[in-house]
Amino acid sequence: MLSLTAPFAIFGQDPALETRKIALQRAAPLVQLAPLLAAAGVSLEDALDGTGLSVDDIGPDRFIPFAAFLEILERSATLSGNADIGLQLGRRLGLGVLGPVGDVMRHAATLGEALADFAAFQILNCTGAAVYLHRVGDEVMWGYGIYDSAHAASPVIHDAVIAVGSALIAELARGMVRPNEITLMRPAPADPAPWRSLGAPVRFGQARTCMFLSRSAMARPLTTADAGARDAALGKVASYLARAPWGWAGRTRHVLRTRLQDGPPTMPEVARHLDIDVRTLRRALAREGTGFAEIRDQVRSAVACELLSLTRLPVGDIAEIVDFATPSSFVHAFRRWTGTTPSA
């Protein structure tokens, strides 16, 4: 069993060692899972069966393995018979599930600043997936991408994340902002009706799980803005980051996932994002027993496997998404990573 309390203090173990080995997720979102399961005649214990976790491990300030988090979501959908349980769960969540990061977001000046905070500090809530913001023409894209290679592909997490994003935006903007469009990596469900509740056109089986917002929406002032409270919350976040045990490899992995689908993510670019020079980053990664190319391939492999599992995108398209010049070079690398071919 591996269960943690904030900030990543493992009972009787070395957090610096363990959190570099395994991707973690704040368990707070699962607190709301019990009543959803109970309504379908299923217990939370049933959903946890086989994960090595108990009900005591599911708490607001606990952290659990990211792979177990995804497994619990998938088991919940299967046991309850609710294909849209991710949507149901996500709609019940708000800023409170994000811990200190939610406090920073609540007191931001604008919606855009709050979502940028989410992207900047989300690693405090999860070290297996990243949230990112990118400008796309006249819109801003808020996206979510998994980079943990230990998980099985989960359609439910993509539903939950988009529903959480919609719930956070509704809470921050008092229901006055809705996304223009939503894309989901998960395949189309048999009955797409529940997904219409997201309040925007939804496309399934896409290369990204994200929502598109107008720039005017991002500039919307928040009624909860408070510069003093925000500075205090930022101070708490900074103290957590200063003691973060995931190391430079974890930070590099997180940044790479946010940049992967927007051109070749180079080491100098990642180093600039981490506010460190290339030589220092290279030495830091070497001390942790790894290197930039190895981490980049780990992220590429995780993204490629998920796309191959959840979408019907052609192999050539996936090769381009994970930054390979040709499909053949991607196939060769994929065989080296996994021992099999993308087609298989």
Any key phrases for this structure?
Arc Repressor Mutant, subunit A, 2 domains, 344 residues, five-stranded mixed beta sheet, four-stranded antiparallel beta sheet, H-NOX domain, alpha+beta
TL;DR of this structure?
By secondary structure, the protein is an alpha+beta fold. Helices cover 48% and strands 11% of the residues.
Structural description of this entry:
The protein is built from 16 helices and nine strands. It is α+β, with helices and mostly antiparallel strands and 344 residues long. The protein has two domains: 4-218, H-NOX domain (Alpha-Beta Complex), CATH 3.90.1520; 247-338, Arc Repressor Mutant, subunit A. The protein has a five-stranded mixed β-sheet with strand order 5-6-9-7-8, with helices on both faces. The chain has a four-stranded antiparallel β-sheet with strand order 2-1-4-3. It starts with a strand and ends in a 6-residue tail after the last helix.
**CATH topological fold name of the largest domain:** H-NOX domain
Shape: globular
Structural class: alpha+beta
Work out the count of structural domains.
Answer: 2
Strand content: 5-15%
* Helical residue percent band: 40-55%
Q: Kindly provide the name of the CATH class of the largest domain.
A: Alpha Beta
Task: Count every beta strand, where a strand is a DSSP E run of 2 or more residues.
Answer: 9
Rg, nearest Å: 19 Å
How many helices? The count is 16
CATH architecture of the largest domain: Alpha-Beta Complex
Biggest sheet overview:
5 strands, mixed
N-to-C SSE series? EEHEHHEHHHHEEHEEEHHHHHHHH
Distance between the termini: 33 Å
Question: Strands across the major sheet, in which order?
Answer: 5-6-9-7-8
Give the uncertain stretches in residue-range form. 1-7, 9-17
Overall pLDDT, averaged? 92
